[in-house]
Amino acid sequence: MASLADIGLAAAINILSAIAFLVAFAILRLQPFNDRVYFPKWYFKGIRNSPTHAGAVRKFFNLDCRTYIRFLNWMPAALRMPELELIDHAGLDSVVYIRIYLLGLKIFVPLTFLAFAVLVPVNWTGGTLEHTRNLTFSDIDKLSISNIASDSNRFWAHVVMSYAFTFWTCYILHNEYKVIASMRLHFLASENRRADQFTVLVRNVPPDPDETVSEHVEHFFCVNHPDHYLTHQVVYNANKLASLVEKKKSLQNWLVYYQNKFERYPKNRPTVKTGLWGMWGNKADAIDHYSSEIEKLTKEEETERERILSDPKSIMPAAFVSFRSRWGAAVCAQTQQSSNPTLWLTEWAPEPRDVYWHNLAIPFVEITIRKLIMAVALFFLTFFFMIPIAFVQSLANLEAIEKVFPFLKELIEADAVKSFIQGFLPGIALKIFLIILPSILMLMSQIEGYTSLSSLERRSAGKYYLFLLVNVFLGSIITGTAFQQLSNFLNQSANNIPKTVGASMPMKATFFISYIMVDGWAGIAAEILRLKPLIVFHLKNTFLVKTDSDREQAMDPGSLEFASSEPRIQLYFLLGFVYSVVTPILLPFICVFFGFSYLVFRHQIINVYNQNYESGATFWPDVHRRIITGLIISHILFMGLLSTKGFGESTPLLVALPVITIWFHIFCKNRFEPAFIKFPLQDAMVKDTLEKATEPTLDLRSYLHDAYIHPVFKDEDFYRSSAIEEEENNPLVATKRNSRLSTPVHSKLGSEFGSENEA
Amino acid sequence: MASLADIGLAAAINILSAIAFLVAFAILRLQPFNDRVYFPKWYFKGIRNSPTHAGAVRKFFNLDCRTYIRFLNWMPAALRMPELELIDHAGLDSVVYIRIYLLGLKIFVPLTFLAFAVLVPVNWTGGTLEHTRNLTFSDIDKLSISNIASDSNRFWAHVVMSYAFTFWTCYILHNEYKVIASMRLHFLASENRRADQFTVLVRNVPPDPDETVSEHVEHFFCVNHPDHYLTHQVVYNANKLASLVEKKKSLQNWLVYYQNKFERYPKNRPTVKTGLWGMWGNKADAIDHYSSEIEKLTKEEETERERILSDPKSIMPAAFVSFRSRWGAAVCAQTQQSSNPTLWLTEWAPEPRDVYWHNLAIPFVEITIRKLIMAVALFFLTFFFMIPIAFVQSLANLEAIEKVFPFLKELIEADAVKSFIQGFLPGIALKIFLIILPSILMLMSQIEGYTSLSSLERRSAGKYYLFLLVNVFLGSIITGTAFQQLSNFLNQSANNIPKTVGASMPMKATFFISYIMVDGWAGIAAEILRLKPLIVFHLKNTFLVKTDSDREQAMDPGSLEFASSEPRIQLYFLLGFVYSVVTPILLPFICVFFGFSYLVFRHQIINVYNQNYESGATFWPDVHRRIITGLIISHILFMGLLSTKGFGESTPLLVALPVITIWFHIFCKNRFEPAFIKFPLQDAMVKDTLEKATEPTLDLRSYLHDAYIHPVFKDEDFYRSSAIEEEENNPLVATKRNSRLSTPVHSKLGSEFGSENEA
Question: Which residues form the CSC1/OSCA1-like 7TM region domain (chains A, B) (predicted)?
Fold first, then answer.
């Protein structure tokens, strides 16, 4: 095991590399030509534009030395924006997301102080390791629970601290849940009028022999919500059309690429191979080829559009039903409509950007079956993912390569190459798997049939957390694959599982400390440097971008990746809880991680990420539940550890901890969770009344008219023509579109953040 | 182990004793003076009255010999009433309850045939036991899975049958759930107008400094349900008053008893001791004593009534809020009212008879804490109940008695008495505990804070099921107390638990067969004989009854005891599933139990039980869930058994069974459970529209006016005076009260069932 000095050295290296990243970031971000990579959000808000007033060099490089001196001043800048303004600027989802890091600080900073004040002295003076002969130990071990003799009364300190930590965590968690629930309610209450406030998504509309889906929906809601029903919008199965549009877009990209190429080198007209992946087949003139392809697709698209609108089969048994008031929508979303609970399923409509159109037409029975299959698949993926990877690895060895490609034999046999391949190949399959894992999990969630992007992200995060828990946390403590662990566990006593894990916990502390530094610290530093988007943007900017909208697309930073980053944060919570009692020296590393992450992500959500949708922090119950899970796991492992230490008499005392924690969870769930899934009538009524008083002449029908049409139909003439004519030119819709841009707050902030470059 | 002949003999004995019970029942029920014990339901319906037309002897004894010959014809009579009529006569709860027995038949009769056709021959020709020396075995064992050699391919038959049984069970369960859900919906749809259709129970009304609870409720619902709110009824804390009324009633009973005594023997005026339990203290004239006590209580009652009505503190923060339409009530019951989900909690009001008034005022946090405490208490009760009982037993031994009561020494030392005490005393504490257990569990459910009698019964049933599962089922298979089992289990491998239980399963088959006969068959026969109510009724009738209403009270058979009898049925389901593959010979005994029970309980709900409330079969999801639990337990134990038989390779195949079953459960839950907890708006709208068309002038406000007042206030002048005067003499309320009695169907049935006596 590593000594304190080793850990210090590793920490120093990691800190240095993090600082190197930060310095690189500080320099790169000051260059105007990187501005769109590091401050894309301001461009999207329309507050910043490409610098035009300076000369050619100053357009690309920042030659003002004074700005380099203050290379760390993005940090206070990131912290300066007050929270309310931040919600307005970046949305509630992002703000609540960075509050997870803040929550980590709130929990673990006091825990660190308490643990260093009480447990470290107790452990340090335990003196067991010094008196045991033939044992190598380090200072880290002297600080951990390993230094205390079996059956010593000193363990009472740990038991008491375990209680103190749990109560503190629950106290903070409770406060945070309360704050976030009220933030959400306040956010929903202060929101402007939005289409989803009036709209309910209805699925599984039963087929009717005499009526079309649209008529059936209208009649049903006219009868059963007579005073509240306003209008509805059927859902077309436009999946094929969407893929055509997608394909056309990519072809247009290539066309632009070759046109640019041709402009630059007008002598040789670019050619392309028309076969598979552009690597086989006949050569053809690239520009002509793509132009004709695009033409073909455009026609195909037209036919498909017409087919969708004329064919009744392309209307899915689902609809977005809008109501006269928020009250009416809240009632419909929360009640059961028909006596058959699998028909006329209503749920609050996700906001239009958040809809996952692909899944709107899956019938009830199919969803149940899909969920079963995905649950089984997730189990196998979690516990048996090593089997196919090991198989691929066994194929990808030197002999196999030599057999398939005999001409490579000499090259491979060279020592340097050989050792490189031997060291590299076995890992590559695993690395590739881990990189694509979030996509696999997202695909699984999509198959499960969720209808909004936000719910897809939440479900994927849950799956990823399970994977990390089993394969990273347990897998690191107990060596061996998850499958071996599972079979070991099944053949062990139920009592022995926490014992086995608990007993090996203290020995793995140094491993996890370096894990936190490498994966956590360096990961966050890499996050702010944005190396991949930086390269991709400059490549695209050089080869593809022609118009401003192209450039906007190229610099689009996308959303925060909740599905993959939230479970990683949860891993740090888990490590913190587990080691808070066992090896408190790990806690400062966790605290640094949370603090640094908070800083970086606050900067990122202000300057970089541009959320695709706004769910109003609906993910918080999941975050809360997973933190509670981590806490309970830590209790169980601590019980196991103490019983291997001959301190089993404390077990009855410790059993109370998970019981209390579970009860606390149920309490919080009942108390706060409804705020995230239900819609109080009182609040709806307040907003309705206010609106009626301030805007008595509001034409809601035209406001809602095209809110929920499939994105491929948006801004299409042909769709409009099928809609009611007189509603077309309603000023409200236009107003809403414009109002997104440039409010006073944004311009003020934009100038504040932009000032460094312009100085 | 018992041989087939032994089992046959035991069966014969049990069948004979059951027949003896039945003959006794056949004779007793034909005696007119027992009529009120065996046919009370008809008296409550007002169809039967005490025979008056015959002489003194014929009034008490049935001297018509012909009726004795047909002593078993209650059986076809019980089956004759069609189900729809039965629902009308006995309510949906009772009908669905007896359908549990029918479900047992539907599942286990085909299972029996299949098992006897396939598994019995396979087992019989297994030939292992014959070839093993030094082993005593019986024919029962030759029919069971024990007769098959380790690792034999014959086990495939059992695996395949296990699948067949599971699919059959799921098929039947699915159909049954479907039928009962539609029965419930049909029942609710065809019900007459009832107060609870329009009413919602609102709890946790927040305190308001400026308004009373009543005003606050009215304002809140006027604002948030403006078009639908009609009226409301506050809830008084009348618990003290109710106990006073209860006490007065019991004193009045005693007064009547002594008055009757005095009338019979006018010479000596009865006296009573005024101290504790009437055993100590001064002697006093009994009639005077009770009269004066009653007078005192009446005054106290008056003061308490006035206090409740005048003191604002006696108004609880809860109310029954009624709406103009069923639609409005359905909306309010299913939606969240306030942004704080612990305030303004709404739920569909139980019907007035079903309300458990005592629990209406418990605040949210307290309920959460109470539930935690009760969950912990249930755990200890289930696993550690033997500890206090063993303690009591250790106290109640011979020496202890001799020490406390030295004068009894000689009596006790007599051999006969001594052996009696030694055989009797250790068991008595356990017996008493088992008798009062359902009451303990009911008390625990009451502490948990449920607000309706039906939910209390459902929760108690769940607790009792857990107790039976752990202590009767597992406790019988593995000898030793539940606590010892628990500690054994914790120290065993998770894999080993089903192995241990599974391996000892086949050996316990004969025990469970005799359990089914003694507890099941004889229990049902005793149920129809109603020995305890028979004795109690005649005692009361002799000593207390003076008026007709007294007699009605004395003969009140109460409701079916769902809380204690349903978990017992579940035990038979569990036994059936577990042994269907292992020892199929047990199945016919289960089938006989279900068939016989169905017959008996169909008779009982027609002639005896008088349900206190009608919940519309809301308990079915619980029944379904527990049957599924039994099925899954059987799968796990079968897996354990096969792996001890060296047939572990089938485990992966068998693991699919519980997974499929759990999925099936989730599917059914989503598909059918909403019918039992939610209230479709479509159905509400249909009923509303119909009512508006047929009774456009209905005065709903007066109809609902006193529907939800505490029973102690019912029919009290003082309460009426505080209500609005002009609503008093509304004909609707009176009509409803009268309409309970004598509809054409009832008279027809009454005469049919009554014909035997009158012939």
Answer: 370-642
Q: Which helix (H) or strand (E) holds A667?
A: helix A651-672
Residue A348: phi, psi to the nearest 5?
-55, 130
Q: How far is CA A241 from the centre of its chain?
A: 28
Dihedral of the alpha carbons of A418, A419, A422, A428, in degrees to the nearest 10: -110
- Residues in A closer than 8 angstroms to B331, CB to CB, are 331, 335
CA A315 to chain B, closest CA, distance in angstroms equals: 24
* Counts for chain A of helices (H) and strands (E), in that order: 39, 6
Find, among A639, A478, A492, the residue nearest to B494 by Cα: A492
> Of the candidates B454, B363, B318, B357, which has an alpha carbon nearest to the alpha carbon of residue A667?
B363
Which two structure tokens, joined as six digits, stand for A332? 């419909």
Helices (H), A208-238: 213-224
Residue B359 to residues B217, B449, B452, B460, Cα–Cα distance (Å):
19, 5, 9, 16
Select the residue from B204, B227, B336 to test the A interface by mutation, using most A Cβ atoms within 10 A.
B336
Instruction: Kindly list the residues from chain B whose CB atom is less than 8 angstroms away from the CB atom of residue A671.
Output: 341-342, 364
Residue type, B279: M
Which residues, at least 6 apart from B441, have a Cβ–Cβ distance to it below 8 Å? B460, B463, B464, B467, B563
Cα–Cα dist A375/B134, whole Å: 49
Query: Distance from first CA to last CA of chain A, Å, rounded?
Result: 52
Distance of residue A205 Cα from the nearest chain B Cα, in angstroms? 14
pLDDT in tens, B278-290: 666 677 777 788 8
**Cβ atoms A350, A201 nearer than 8 A:** yes
The strand pairing partners of A466, in sequence order, are none
ipTM above 0.95, yes or no: no
* Strand arrangement of the beta sheet that strand B229-236 belongs to: B229-236, B315-323, B199-203, B345-348
- Main-chain dihedrals φ then ψ at residue A133, nearest 5 degrees: -85, 170
Determine the Cα–Cα distance for residues A437 and A447; give it in Å rounded to an integer. 15
How many other C-beta atoms can be found within 10 angstroms of the C-beta atom of residue A657? 22
Chain A: closest CA distance from residue B508 (Å): 25
Give the distance from residue A223's alpha carbon to the nearest chain B alpha carbon, in angstroms: 8
Put residue A281 in one of left, alpha, beta given phi > 0 → left and psi -120 to 50 → alpha: left
Specify the DSSP element, H or E, that contains A5: helix A4-29
Least confident of A640-649, B15-24, B239-248, B400-409: B400-409
3-state secondary structure of B47: coil
Task: Using a CB–CB cutoff of 8 Å, tell me whether A483 touches chain B.
Answer: no
At A208, is the secondary structure helix, strand, or coil? Answer: coil
Q: Collect all residues of chain A within an 8 Å Cβ-Cβ radius of residue B681.
A: 224-225, 335-337
Q: Give me B671's structure tokens.
A: 């598909």
Whether chain B has a CB inside 8 Å of the CB on A363: the answer is no
Cα gap B575→B631, rounded to integer Å: 10
Encode pLDDT of B446-492 as tens digits: 888 888 888 899 999 999 999 988 888 887 777 655 556 666 666 66
Q: What angle do CA A194, A196, A197 make, to 5 degrees?
A: 70
Q: Chain A 486-505, CB below 8 Å of chain B: which residues?
A: 489-497
DSSP B203: E
Which residues on adjacent β-strands are paired with residue B284?
B272
- B190-195: which pairs have CB atoms within 8 A and are 24 or more residues apart? B192/B739, B193/B691, B193/B703, B194/B351, B195/B322, B195/B349, B195/B351, B195/B352, B195/B703, B195/B704, B195/B707, B195/B708
Out of B342, B376, B674, whose CB is closest to A336? B674
- The dihedral of CA B305, B307, B312, B315: what is its sign? negative
Has residue B303 got a pLDDT over 50?
yes
